[in-house]
């Protein structure tokens, strides 16, 4: 009799030894290969979690890792000496939101704005330029620069109608200096404009921060008030673990022994009291200042009319 | 909320004003002599009067007038143990008003603007805590207005207490003998009557 092989038995043994590589879930597990993370959004079996927590969590995480590894093998793989390497995607599926807003772009200078509008891009100028007359390379500026070619001529033509003591060389040089000065002036002005814009932005940011801080303070204050607004003034309320203890307002008085400051402030208050500025209780007495007690006078005339 | 008045401490600005105004009600411009005897102005910081100029201190609602050297000595006494020091001017009520006490009589009698002298037969009734009636009135400062803080003295110029004038000097003349002239505020009889709570 030829013995038959019971395939189902072998299969069962195999499944006992090796767990399945294909994972099926109601909601498919999402993989983020860039971060090498798997997200299982299926509902957790609460009963099993209670009765058999460790194994249940282990099972779940094994499935997710299996799914992640399956996906890894689907990526383009290159063979190297160290073994196969999978190429991971450049960007992750899940982008964490920024904590703070994007920084504001820096304010452009007047020239940068103009250049952007006209589509002018920065082109680096060569330091040397070719002088056609001399047939050689000379610097654009500086010693023997081409910008000084005219003023350094050995002979200048005196044009008609110009004074006899007119010096064309110094006139040309003066014009060049003026252009340079004008440029510096414009540069400074532009810097000033951008600086003022930047300062304005900074001030706005500071104001916003201050507002937020005040809001936070108010929130804390109202929280404090609500905490001590129970019948026991918050004494017998359930506390959360790690809840900070309420801090009372500390009053600060002047030091007992620093008497010179006190004498000074006493004298100031004395002056105020003597002049009667901002008197605390205005209704005390009528006598010394007014000859007539107006309150009494009004009352007595009222009575006499009746 | 008003600041706590338990601890031994200097007065706050509002409290100082309250005390000064109450004193000024009796002594008027002479207040300067009490608080600032050297006459130093508030702008300049004078070193000389540091030891002589009096200070105001608060302990359990009571206001004390004392000079700087005693104040400095007092720092060696623990605050809960310190009961009284210097001259007790009066006390703050729970609602933050200041009331002059009999301890301030020395200062008031010396610098008072308006005074009332009572006849010998009126001394005892006043010392028992009663108001001063016209019949007991010996003498009164000429131009005393109505509702003005006045110091009450015996005919031999011994200060007996202080109060508030019920009528102006002119009105008292028309008053019948049982009419009130001075409302009682404090008298030296309190040293016996209120011995336990005075200091």
Automatic annotation (TrEMBL), chain A:
Cellular component GO terms, alphabetical: nucleus
Protein name: Ribosome biogenesis regulatory protein
InterPro entries reported in the protein's UniProt record: Ribosom_reg
Family: Belongs to the RRS1 family.
Organism expressing this protein natively: Wallemia mellicola (strain ATCC MYA-4683 / CBS 633.66) (Wallemia sebi (CBS 633.66))
Compositionally biased spans, kind Polar residues: 187-196, 296-306
Keyword Nucleus carried by entry: yes
Keywords from the UniProt entry: Nucleus, Ribosome biogenesis
UniProtKB/TrEMBL annotation, chain B:
Subunit relationships: Interacts with pre-ribosome complex.
Listed SUPFAM superfamilies: Pre-PUA domain, PUA domain-like
Domain PUA span(s) in chain numbering: 114-189
GO terms for MF: RNA binding
GO BP annotations listed: ribosome assembly
Gene3D superfamilies in UniProt: 3.10.450.220, PUA domain
Domain of life: Eukaryota
Source organism per UniProt: Wallemia mellicola
Family per record: Belongs to the NIP7 family.
InterPro entries for this protein: NIP7_N (IPR040598), Nip7_N_euk (IPR055359), PUA (IPR002478), PUA-like_sf (IPR015947), PUA_sf (IPR036974), Ribosomal_synth_fac_NIP7 (IPR016686), UPF0113_PUA (IPR005155)
UniProt-annotated location(s): Nucleus, Nucleolus
Keywords: Nucleus, Ribosome biogenesis, RNA-binding
Protein name in UniProt: 60S ribosome subunit biogenesis protein NIP7
Function: Required for proper 27S pre-rRNA processing and 60S ribosome subunit assembly.
Cellular component terms (Gene Ontology): nucleolus
Xref: Pfam families: pre-PUA_NIP7, UPF0113
Keyword field contains Nucleus: yes
Main localization (coarse): nucleus
SMART domains referenced in this protein's UniProt entry, alphabetically: PUA
